[in-house]
Amino acid sequence: MAPRPLARVAVAGLAAVALLGSAACGSGFDDSSEGTAQSSGPASLQILIGSSGDAETKAVQDAAAKWAGESGNTATVTPAQDLTQQLGQGLAGGTPPDVFYVDAAQFADYASVGALEPYGDKISNTGDFYESLRTAFTYDGKLYCAPKDFSTLALQINTDLWTKAGLTDADIPTTWDQLTATAQKIKAKGQVPLALGDTRDRVGAFMVQNGGWLMSEDGKQPTADTPENLAALQYVKDLVTKGLAQYPKQLDAGWSGEAFGRGKAVMTIEGNWIKGALQNDFPNVKYQVVPLPAGPKGPGTLSFTQCWGIAAKSKYKEQAIKFVEAMTAGEQQMAFARAFGVMPSRQSVHDQYVSAFPADKPFIDGVEYAQGPVNAPKMDSVLRDLEAGLQALSTGDPKTILANFDKNAKAALGD
């Protein structure tokens, strides 16, 4: 699995916003969704997924076939070539799939124009979904859709390079001060301490660790320009300018996992998708995973998640909800975890997951203190501007970067 959340977020906004823009201006999806004629007979569900590869496609198709066989419905699972574009076209054209993956980074765009059926309270035991995942798919106080699975960020350590630098388990950093001290030891040995992605999806973790974030919890107000976020960005800037952390492009790599796999950095900060990427591309790299170092305000990480969206215009809503119920059952989520490496969104199978994948415990435990993506509509250009600022952080002014985000976000939300 490649760095999926990073790739998804990069393509998330333009197509969705453009194709859904007319809905935001008055021809909304919700105008007719209540009046969509519902079929109570056998359903022919169309399911569109953004698949990470053959393993995920087969696992979802097998699960859908099992559900269809037991329920008397049919369910056709199609892996999208470009989920954002295909879904946007289907929604704008009035012929959406019944069920589809929705990334948390795009969720608010779809929910805000009435494209999604808010069925969340019709799924059994919604309290079993991790709270941070429920929050990611709540809009205007409603849980719209059931979290499918999730990823979080953790710290990966190349154990061979670690030993080569003369470090032991006592040097594993658990605080910012320890991260700095360990990185200084590694740099003194002539190695790059940390490969760090130059995006909000990596740098943002430091904001959370200092008690900050970009938006209010309800997604209504930008909250970037605060002392907490400023201190976090200044800390990251210090790491980069002092050579204690380097961006992937400085290491001639496409993403941090590649730099880490090629032995160009002793540590990196990535999600659990790095496991599959290293197995595929750098199978000889020995590494361990530990929680991200805590900041002054405590532990913090970022979560990346998707939900099972149901189209407001589906004529098979009742059957679609039952399909999602089956897909999010604990046993089925564990089957998906074994098939293609995702982490279950239900707390009740946490112990099963850790027993099956003990090395991934830092990832799944991180959900307890994780922050999801920006949960507000029409933020794509705002976030792109933020990314540009973070990419130039070594020579930029953190205060200006944060103030610009708040100014741009207010303009977008007030549009």
Task: Describe the protein's architecture and organization.
The chain has about 425 residues and is α/β, with parallel strands linked by helices. It has 2 domains: about 5-150 and about 305-370, D-Maltodextrin-Binding Protein, domain 2 (3-Layer(aba) Sandwich); about 155-300 and about 375-415, D-Maltodextrin-Binding Protein, domain 2, CATH 3.40.190. Helices cover about 45% and strands about 15% of the residues. Strands 1, 2, 3, 6, 7, 8, 9, 10, 11, 12 and 13 form an 11-stranded mixed sheet that branches. β1, α3 (about 55-70) and β2 (about 75-80) form a beta-alpha-beta unit. GO terms for molecular function: maltose binding.
Strand content: 5-15%
Assign a percent range to the helix content. Answer: 40-55%
Largest sheet, described in full?
11 strands, mixed
Q: Write down the domain tally.
A: 2
Low-confidence regions: 1-33
CATH H-level superfamily title of the largest domain: Periplasmic binding protein-like II
Number of strands: 13
Under CATH, the topology of the largest domain is which? D-Maltodextrin-Binding Protein, domain 2
Q: CATH class of the largest domain, anyone? A: Alpha Beta
Rg on CA atoms, Å: 21 Å
**What is the number of helical segments per DSSP (H or I, 4+ residues)?**
18
Globally, the shape reads globular
Kindly state the mean pLDDT as a whole number?
A: 91
Classify the secondary structure makeup into a structural class: alpha/beta
CATH architecture of the largest domain: 3-Layer(aba) Sandwich
Distance between the termini: 37 Å
